Each structure stands twice: as C-alpha cells, then as structure tokens.
Amino acid sequence: MSKVEIDNRLLKPGVYFMRGNDASVEGALIAGCRFFAGYPITPSNEIATLMSRRLPQVGGIYMQFEDEIGSIMAVLGASNGGVKSMTATSGPGFSLMQEAIGLAAMTETPAVIVEVQRGGPSTGLPTQVGQGDVMQVKWGSHGDYEIVAYLPNSPQEMFDMTIKAFNTAWRYRVPVVVLSDQMIGHMREKVVVPPYEEIEIVERRRPEESPEEFLPFSNKYLIPPMAVAGEGYRIHVTGLAHNEKGYPTTDYETVRKLVTRLVRKIRDNERDIAEYEEFMADDAKLIIVSFGITSRSAKKAVRDARSKGLKVGLFRPKTAWPFPYWRLQELTNNGADVLVVEINMGQMYRVVREHVRSSEVYNMPLTPGACPSPEDIYKKIEEVYPR
Amino acid sequence: MKHPYLRYLRPENVPTVFCPGCGIGIVMKALFQAFDELGYETLEEFVFVSGIGCSAWIPSPHILADSVHTLHGRAIPVATGIKLVKPDLNVLVIGGDGDIAGIGGNHLLHAARRNMDLMVIMINNQVYGMTGGQLAPTTPYGMKTTTTPYGNPEEPMDTCDIVASAGANYVARWTVGHYLQLKDAFKKAMEKQGFRFVEAVSQCPSRVSSRIGLSPADHIKYYLRNSVDIRKAEELLPEERMEKIIVGEYVDRNKPGYLEKIKMVMRR
Ligand SMILES: Cc1ncc(C[n+]2csc(CCOP(=O)(O)OP(=O)(O)O)c2C)c(N)n1
Ligand code: SF4
Ligand SMILES: [Mg+2]
Asked: Most buried among A175, A192, B121, B145, using CB within 10 Å?
C-alpha cells in the first residue's frame, strides 16, 4: 500500500478561505506544475511546506535543495526535461537566484518563481513586509533580457496569477516571477476556484519538424517551439551566445539577432502581457499608483478622498514588468498628477517618472516593516492634491 | 575511413576546441570507448549536463546527444532536476575541478549524500584552465600557478575521499596515463545506480605543463610516476600521501539510489 494516493487530487472548483501562499500552490498544481525545488526562507515557507505534501499526491516531485541556487537550477533542469516547474523564495534567496534567471532568459527555459518580498536590504526584516524588489526583479541579472513579473494583491490573485505566470512562462519561454509580499502571502481571504474549463492552461509549443530539420533557436519565430531532453531532438542548450542551432558563437550579427529576439519577444507583446486595474481614475486629478498590499490601503484612501470631494483615483499595475505605461499616460494626458505609494524608497516611482512627463509625479518613500494605513496615504493626498 | 567514435560527436563542432596536447582529448576518447564497449550505437538514452570551464566543453557543444550547458558550478542541480523528471534517462555531468569541486562543491557534497542517480566525471587539471591557470582547490601544496606566484600555501582537497565519505555508490580516480583503468571506471560507473564519481587527473599543457617545463607526454609520465594505488596509500605517512596522486576505486557499493529511496519512503 502506498502512503500517498496518487489520484490527481487538484483543488476542486469552489469557494475557499485560504492563505495567499497556499493559494499560490493550488494554482500552480492546477496550472500543471509537477516539480518544485526550494530552500527554506521566511515568508515564503508555506509554499514549500504545502508543495511537499501536495506534489506527491498529484504525481509530482518536491525536493529541498542545499541552497536557492541549486533550487532554481533544478527547476531549469526539470523544465528542460519537459515538466512545468517552479520555486518560491524571498529577498536573500532571490538574490542568489539572479545568475540562474539570466541563464533561463538566455536559454529560453520557462520557469516560475514566487517571490514573497520581505523587508530589505540584506537579511533585513525576515518576518515583515517590504516591496523593495521591484527593480531587482527586472534588472537583477547581468546583460539585456526581458522577463515578466506579476503583482498580486490578494490570496485570490496569488491563485490566479500563479496560473498566469505558468501560462506566460510557457508561452513566451521566459522566467516569470510572482512578486508578492509578506502580507499578501500570509493573509487569509476568500479564494474562488473556478470550473476547470474556465481556466486557461498554456502548454509549450512543440517542434513540428523532425530532429534533423528542427532549428531550436530559429529567428523565423519570435518565440521558437521548444524541444526537451529525451525526445530525440538532441537539444543543445547553452548560456553562451548561440546561433539558431544552439551552438556557441561570437559572430556579431548572430548575437545581435539573438539578443534582439530575447528582448523583443516581451517588448513586442507588452500590451498582451501587462495587466492593470483602475479605480475612479477616469476623471481623477490625482492618480495613485500602488500595487500589492499597499494598493489595498490606497484604494480605501481614494474612497475617503472622494467622499471629501477630492478627485482621486487608483491605477494598480498587476504586472510590474512589463509596466503598463501606455494606460497611465492616457490617464495623465489631461494633466492629472500622480502619487506613487509603495513600500520602498522610490522604485516604481522612477518607472512612473520615466513615462509621465507632462505632470507632477510625487512619491511617498516608505521604509520596510509596515504597510501605510489609508490615513497615512490620505494625509499625503491632501499634501499633494492639485488645488 | 571515418573514425568510429565520430558517431558520438556533432559533426559541425569537430575538430574540438581544446589546446593541442590537452588531456581532455584522452578523457573523451576513454568515455567514447566506454560507450562503444557497452554497445551504445547512439547516445539517445543519455543527457549531458555541464557547467563552465574547458572540461565542461566536452559535452557542449561536442557530444551528439541532449545536452545542457549551464552555469559555473551548477551542473549537478540541473542534472538532478532532469533525472527526477526523466528517470529513464542516464544523466551524466562532466566538468573541471574548479567547476565541480570548487564553486560547485556544495552541490557535489549533497548530491553524493543523497546518492542521487547521476554520474559525474571530474577532470582534475589542478587549475582553473579556461581562465588562465589560477589556483584551484585541487592545486598541490607549493605549486606555482598564475595566482600563486610564490607557490600555493593551501593544501588541496581529496575530492574522491570527500565524495566517498558523503555517501556515493562509486568513486574512482585515475590519471589519463591510466587510460584503460579510466575507461573501465567509466563503464562500471555507467552501469550503476546512485551517485557515481570518476575523477580523471589530466594535463593542461597551456597553463600548467608549459609553466613547469614539461611536454604533454612528459606530464603524463610524471603523473604515472607519482601515482600510488589506493591500497598501498594507507601505508604512507600523511606528508608522503600529499605528494602522491592516489589512484584506484575509493568505494564501490550498491546502496539504493535517491529514486529508489523516494519509492521506499512512499511505501512505508
Ligand atoms: C560565476 C562565475 N564565476 C567565474 C567564472 C569564470 N570561469 C570560467 S571557467 C572558470 C574555471 C574553470 O576551471 P575548471 O572548472 O577547473 O575547468 P578547466 O577549465 O580547468 O577545465 C572560471 C572561474 C564564471 N564563468 N562564472
Ligand atoms: S587551457 Fe588547458 S585544460 Fe583548457 S583546453 Fe587548453 S590545455 Fe586543455
Ligand atoms: Mg581545472
């Protein structure tokens, strides 16, 4: 008798009361994740804990590694073996993974990383909230590459966006990060699992040509189909600059085409990938840009401001990268000012300033360890509201 | 006539990139002979994983099989990930001493402890060859390298000893001068479960042999003269041991490998 019943026990459609980190696990399993490798770190631990119990139940494999580098590398190995795979971590562990994230981008190996942000820098505040990894998630590895990062602000979105992260990773062949935070990860709230047929699941595009004819990194495609180990394609995957066959090259023109494609496959599709939410933003004279846990306080602050007759709105990016700048530009074309609220000293603030040139952009620099209250944000609104 | 082992190579990437006289070629030949003698016409059942370094270039881009060329020191966890999701494939890691025992040493230690079902070939040229011949964790005491111009003050690690005590099923060291023993060790390791580690002591003419004034052939002869069988090594004093290259099988056992152990705990 087996201790573990392998019966594809995915979480059934229905309404649950769940912790954010747990919702991410259940979303991952529904998305088809069957491999998890990780290393303990607060505040992401619940993800590994639940994965270690749940993965064997659905025929998958869980493994704890000797460090985060080993974890992410094993995830890339499993992905090159054709299995949807992920890891979860927080600040220090995420820093250790950066070299591997560059490798994933260069080799176009899909992977999902759930990063539950804590306060930094360094060991910082292991058990408390921070949103200081907005820039690292985009620029953490060396060289030019594009990846995608989602910004959940509820346990429901931990569930939904983990599924989306798998879809985006396997559609575009990039590493995708679910950039959560300690409060969203640990918060318990209603989570609705919709009927399975309503959930979109993306699989890797497989080669149509025979192994002899297949060009694994063909520039014919923006996102080439992916062959994996053991399928007879004799894949050659390398982090070195490579030609269309996947072999190392230093030819300027070949490298130019490769790096351009790696960047273009996300930039050309940024409007399909990026997501955002707007709340009373259309006629607003001041738009608050906020994400993750702070966006919840910001929303309440917007309501409070409206009840006092101030035309304030909320623009919540649901993806940090690509950043939905075009919509923010449209919303500010009429001269609306912007206030960025995030638990860092001004990271998304820089991105907003890059794209909003015609009006004032304010920020509310916040050190980690606490989420601003709606009252804190309201005070700042009163201070900067255009009169 | 076409060389029979060319069937294991990607034709586009021959000749290889290695320096003339490099021991890596001998290791490759021994590996190919092992495949041949075991009856592998193609290498479809294999996946090769490597890190960064000259030695890591054996599979990538040369061997005609699935191969993943990863980061410096990180081949073993990638190989682990592949093996766990593709247990029917024979997963082989090839790398240098700096890659496998230096920067990747922690992964090596833990893969051996888990008796992970992988075979690892470590080419020990006593330096970081690719980057110019710098000090490695395997550099002999007193040896001059690019970055130890006055001689190496550190004592080298006996990687085989560490891997064997960590729990691997099979551990052996030979020099490229012991060609047949090396080839047989590859064959034996390939047929076993669990963690298998074969170290090949190999000359780096560009960064080491030339520095110490030896031709590649003389360097191999030097290795042979300085080798001592592991069964005799026990009689040596620690200082004498340090001067020698210990060759032979450190361990050969049949403990259940990691994949078998997952099944065992699930059944319990
Ligand atoms: C993280 C990282 N650090 C350093 C390097 C530079 N580097 C490339 S090869 C190498 C040493 C390789 O030595 P070894 O593994 O012994 O292989 P050999 O060239 O001697 O066969 C180093 C340090 C790198 N590629 N990545
Ligand atoms: S540098 Fe040394 S190890 Fe590397 S190919 Fe040349 S001789 Fe061989
Ligand atoms: Mg070396």
From this structure: A175
* Domain-embedded: residue B113: yes
Q: Which CATH number fits domain A277-384: 3.40.50.720, 3.40.50.920, 3.40.50.360, 3.40.47.10?
A: 3.40.50.920
CATH code where residue B92 lies: 3.40.50.970
Structure ipTM = 0.97
Residue B84 Cα, gap to closest chain A Cα (Å): 7
Q: Tell me which H or E stretch contains B170.
A: strand B170-175
For chain A, give every domain's residue range. 14-198, 277-384
B189 in any annotated domain: yes
Is the Cβ–Cβ distance between B61 and A238 less than 8 Å? yes
Cα(B101)–Cα(A173) distance, integer angstroms: 32
Rounded Cα distance, B171 and B115, in Å? 12
Burial B233-251 (b: 16+ CB within 10 A, else e): beeeeeeeeeeebbbbbbb
A14-198 fold: Rossmann fold (3.40.50)
pLDDT recorded at residue A6: 62
Q: Which residues line ligand 2 (CB under 6 A)?
A: B 18-19, 22, 24, 54, 125, 129-130, 204-207
- Residue recorded with tokens 């520039």: A219
B142: Cα separation from own chain's centroid: 23
Other Cβ atoms less than 10 A from the Cβ of A251: the count is 11
**What is the residue range of B42's domain?**
20-267
Q: Name the E strands within B56-149.
A: 66-69, 90-96, 119-124, 127-128, 134-135
CB pairs A-B closer than 8 Å? 133
Site from A5, A55, A66, A96 to mutate, B interface, most B CB atoms within 10 angstroms = A66
pLDDT in tens, A130-188: 999 999 999 999 999 999 999 999 999 999 999 999 999 999 999 999 999 999 999 99
pLDDT digits (tens, 9 = 90+) for A194-216: 999 999 999 999 999 999 999 99
DSSP state of B150: T
In a domain, B36, yes or no: yes
Q: Is A384 on the interface with B (CB under 8 A)?
A: no
Q: Which residue type sits at B233? A: A
Quick check: A229 and A81 in contact, CB under 8 A? yes
